[in-house]
Amino acid sequence: MNKRVLLMITRPEIGGATRNVRDLALKLHGSGFKVMALSSEKQGWLVDELLKSGIPYVHSSLFKARIAPLYDILFVMWLIRFLRKQDIDVLHIHSSKAGILGRIAGKLSGVRRIIFSVHGVSFQRQIPLLPRLLYMIAERFAYWMCDAIVCVSGFDYGRYVDLLGDPQGKVQTIHNELLDFTPQARVPNIMPVFGFLGRLAYQKDPQLFVHSLIRLYELTGISFSAVIKGGGELQEELKCLVHNSRLHNRINFEAEDDRVSEFLARVDVLVMTSRFEGYPYTLLEGRAAGCYLVASDVGGCREIINDESVGLLFTQGSVESCAQALKKSIGQLKQDTLSQRGNEYQTYFLGILRCYDIDLGELGLTNEVHF
Questions:
Q1: d(Cα 132, Cα 147) in Å, to the nearest integer?
Q2: Rg of the chain (C-alpha set)
Q3: Class at the top of the CATH hierarchy for domain 193-330
Q4: Is 320 in contact with 303 (CB distance < 8 Å)?
Q5: In this predicted structure, which of 48-57, 181-190, 358-367 has the lowest mean pLDDT?
Q6: DSSP single-letter state for residue 11
Q7: pTM metric for this prediction
Q8: C-alpha dihedral, 15 to 21 to 27 to 32, nearest 10°
Q9: What is the predicted pLDDT for the residue at 365?
Q10: What are the angstrom distances between the C-alpha of 369 and each of 106, 346, 362?
Q11: What residues form DSSP beta bridges with 251?
Q12: Which residue has the higher pLDDT, 24 or 258?
């Protein structure tokens, strides 16, 4: 397979979109595609992950994450030349800023196939009105400059189509799925253990997790412990919040690292308090590890937690709603694994190859894939 694929994303920092790019790059590379990735920064989690697998990575100092009209024009000009020089067959773009500039450059450079993946609809998030309006206008324009738009959740699909329409029928849903997660044996606990896994940043709203645990203790007085695993700009603020609370001896912090499977094996209830999400890998991993899930009702969380045997949803931003869900989760705990991995990633990969307009027969794969 001599197809040349460029995966493009705005930032290489760890997150759902970058993990999607990493997983897809590894799968394409292993299937014989000539794949490379492009982002705005020289260093980051994605860079390390790709380079250790021998996948080329490039960045441009002209590519700015913020809105910067002069730099944006210069970057598009640079990207047009780069795409032509590399003779890219498929340009697959992830994240909002990259999605606008990449589609413009891809169209003007004559790339054969252009795909845009939506990891949460930017103009539905809690961002200032002017940038949100600019993204909506730009997205209406960029819609016509690609061959397919992939939403990672049915929620994002519905929001995208409701707001912008889909006159050419190019928008579809292909859920994120796990590629390299292996659950460990469950660790039995004397008392319930609540876990938070993710960046300690605005999007994830970790303060709500702490406040909800405090409220749970007020409601029930039961014995429990909690672990917060992650790092980010809110880490010190969060540690102060815990230190000054009555639960300071019940809530522990763990550094962000790759031992996710080991962490989840010790957690009974995995809690996600995010303000917005696409189709979060954290919940997929928690489900595969056998954790009971409690999550804010945002993005594609409802598509993962589709039954109370799997988990519970609560109203985003509500301490009372979250605390009630935590209380109810204690009676729902299961120790058996809920793993549903199977051939999930193969299904995702085949769906993406269809978007690339690849003849699956050349790879020895079947065209009989249904969603």
A1: 24
A2: 21
A3: alpha beta
A4: no
A5: 358-367
A6: -
A7: 0.86
A8: -160
A9: 61
A10: 28, 10, 16
A11: 226
A12: 24
Q: What is the pLDDT of residues 195-252, one digit of tens each?
A: 999 999 999 999 999 999 999 999 999 999 999 999 999 999 999 999 999 999 999 9
In the numeric block, which tokens belong to residue 211?
């406040």
Residue 298 main-chain phi, psi, to 5 deg = -135, 155
Strand partners, 81: none
Q: Convert 250-281 to b/e letters by CB count within 10 Å (16 or more is b).
A: bbebbebeeebeebbbbbbbbbbbbbbbbbbb
Residue count of the chain? 371
* CATH 3.40.50.2000 location in the chain: 4-179+343-363, 193-330
In this structure, are residues 11 and 39 in contact, taking their beta carbons and an 8 Å threshold?
yes
For the cut 60, the answer to whether the pLDDT of residue 154 exceeds it is yes
Four-way CATH pick for 4-179+343-363: 3.40.50.2000, 3.30.160.250, 3.30.70.640, 3.90.180.10: 3.40.50.2000
- Which tokens in the block code for residue 319? 């301490």
List pLDDT tens digits, range 114-150.
999 998 766 555 567 777 788 889 999 999 999 999 9
Q: How far is CA 15 from the centre of its chain?
A: 6
The helix/strand/coil state of 94 is strand
Q: Which residue stretches of the chain are H helix?
A: 16-30, 45-51, 69-86, 96-109, 129-142, 154-164, 206-220, 235-243, 260-265, 281-289, 301-304, 319-330, 344-355
